[in-house]
Amino acid sequence: MRVTADHFTFEPITVDEIPLLLEWRGRPHVAEWWGEAPSLEELRSQYASRLLHTSPVRPYFACIDRTPVGFIQSYVAAGSGDGWWTNVHDPGVLGIDQFLADASLLGRGLGTSMVRQFVEILFTSPSTTMVQADPHPSNARAIRCYEKAGFRTIGPIITPDGDALLMTRNR
Amino acid sequence: MHPRIRELLEHLDAHRAELRSAVDDVPVARRETRPAPGRWSVAEVLEHLAIIDGRVAMMLTAKVSAARAAGLGADYDTSAIVPTFDTTVLLDRTRVVASPVPLHPSGERDAAAAWIVLEASRDQFRAAVLAADGLALGELSHQHPVLGVLNLYQWIASVGTHEARHTAQIREIAAALATS
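Above: the input entities. Below: the structure tokens describing the complete assembly.
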């Protein structure tokens, strides 16, 4: 068995691809949960350290046949700073965030496949103890996606971005 | 940040940048190709490095957690770490170093997936290092399979040096594939 994409490949996002990410962030089905799209400069600033690999957040395009169709990122929860995950001290805990770019692709199991495949890759690291996600409690589509990808609901939490539902998947 | 931790993170970052450059020099379509029977492909080298990062992160976390509970104090020594151990054994590619089987790659990942795992493992390793920032890691030691007993600072440095060995291996793979 090869742990790659039967469907997806995950390509690190480059500086040149920030405008595409910005355009996606402005789409209504993304903005509904990710908030109003920032300016290009704000997004560049936000992702500068991530793209220089000085931040423990790793953003990727999820691609089918090398065409980007979604966004997914992983992060180390411990030591995130800025009030995030202050109760997590295990460096093996990774978190993920994601969305599909095209609203017409929603509801077809594609997000579940993307998440499941990405998480399987993350778990091939021996030090990954758990993967977590924190969708908005009202984002039923995302919650269902994570459930179908093997996550279980831990409970409501308050993050620096507001209310969220903590969901985790163990090995 | 303690100067020794800063030194070690810079050491790790420098070697990681060299690794990325070496990988980029291998055509994408050939990163899963073994240069010869029984030799590792680029993807397998990356998988091996991810295993190392992950396992050292776990060892570091366990050792530091126990030592912290036992009252490990702060480190007031700021002298450099990297020059304190002999790296020639790791860097000498003419010397065969057989890694234990648990550190061998599965060969089940392509290079892109292996790189994602490597990045995640490195992030976890960095988090483990940062969680130990300021503690007297020189007082803690652990047996290294090749270098003997190292203190934990030296262990962190050894990860970067070990990576340099495999960066050289990837350049050898690139050269072999270019002539095949």
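Note for the figure: The longest strand of chain A covers residues 67-76.
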